[in-house]
Prior knowledge:
Layout: H1 7-28, H2 35-48, E1 52-56, H3 59-69, E2 77-81, H4 87-94, E3 98-102, H5 113-119, E4 124-127, H6 139-149, E5 152-156, E6 164-171, E7 174-179, E8 186-190, E9 204-208, H7 211-221, E10 225-227, E11 230-231, H8 242-273, E12 279-280, E13 295-299, H9 304-317, H10 346-354, E14 355-358, H11 366-382
Parallel strand pairs: 2-3, 2-4, 4-5, 5-8
Antiparallel strand pairs: 1-9, 6-7, 8-9, 10-11, 12-13, 13-14
The protein binds pyridoxal-5'-phosphate.
Amino acid sequence: MIQMVDLKTQYARIKDEIDREMQEVFDSCIFIGGPKVNAFRENLEQYLDVKHVIPCANGTDALQIAMMALGLKPGDEVIVPAFTYVATAEVIGLLGLTPVMTDVDPGTMNITAAHIEAAITPRTKAIVPVHLFGQSADMAPIMALAEKHNLFVIEDNAQAIGASYVVGWDTPDQPRLKKTGTIGHFGCTSFFPSKNLGCYGDGGALMTNDDALAAKARMIANHGQSKMYYHDEIGVNSRLDAMQAVILNAKLKNLPLYNAARNDAAKYYDRVFSQIPQLKIPAREPNSTHVFHQYTLQIVAPNPTAVRDELKAYLQEQGISCMIYYPVPLYKQPAYAHYWKGGELPTTEALCASVFSLPMHSEMNEEILAKITGAVKAFFEKN
Ligand SMILES: Cc1ncc(COP(=O)(O)O)c(C=O)c1O
């Protein structure tokens, strides 16, 4: 079976380093914090060119800690895209804040400043743009809007680590780039194993260039503790452990290569799928690079969901995995429906009905790509 990700082959390439470093952790018996976690924090700060990285236990915690550090209070509204993974809205609900769900762009599938502007009310306090599937939301107009309305911006960068966004132009042909997750007040990321930078368990981090926000987030992630056994406010217990830091350190060195391999695979997919009229290949945000956390196509047909069901079954028979990210708009999920006041969001509805994602990882090769594209082509030739 061709799986969505291939962590085994990836591990084989970095096994020596990981096994050696892991043995050092066992020998030192420093499992929480310590030199491996500090080294990873510094390496990630350098790679992202950001002042502070605050490692934590997972990407969902990172979002929650960011909202707590920004002092958001029950009743405050936080704008999120309706087409995203649930974690983005989950922490908003958990903290007693109100998620306000908006539609997204039909091409990039990301939230835009126009969607956000239409959702702003006097209670709006923050925006969570999600850099979905590996490319940045168009952040310049979002940041300008946030400044105008005095709103906090928390980037959900769980799917786009390593992507760069054009924040301005030094000369007409010299863009000024920033890594996603370092543009808003906070960036949050996940190191879930299947992510572009994934560990071998759970992990996450916050990013910020603001010293005071960094200190607050660090404190909240550690039981609201300013110094040992002195607790200034209610916090959480959210730590990255030394074993995960070993994996992340080894993989961070290779992240540009991993993301380049994903881009090569995406180019191959694009070449074949752009010739199939029933498929729409992923649109690129002009101001962002793409790190293809997912390669997500849309089916163009009168009943896309029926075609998608058949395609999925066909690929399964051929030994090829295929996933639907995401089949249900956030506001139609039972847990979130009560937050929803308006009518349906047409683009989110259309995307949930028509998207499907194919295997995408750092170990794709010609043979795998030929098999997948051949099967998809054969399916559409028959249908
Ligand atoms: C967009 C998005 N946000 C947040 C998360 C949450 O990350 P984690 O699973 O590490 O809690 C994920 C990961 O699945 C994600 O894809």
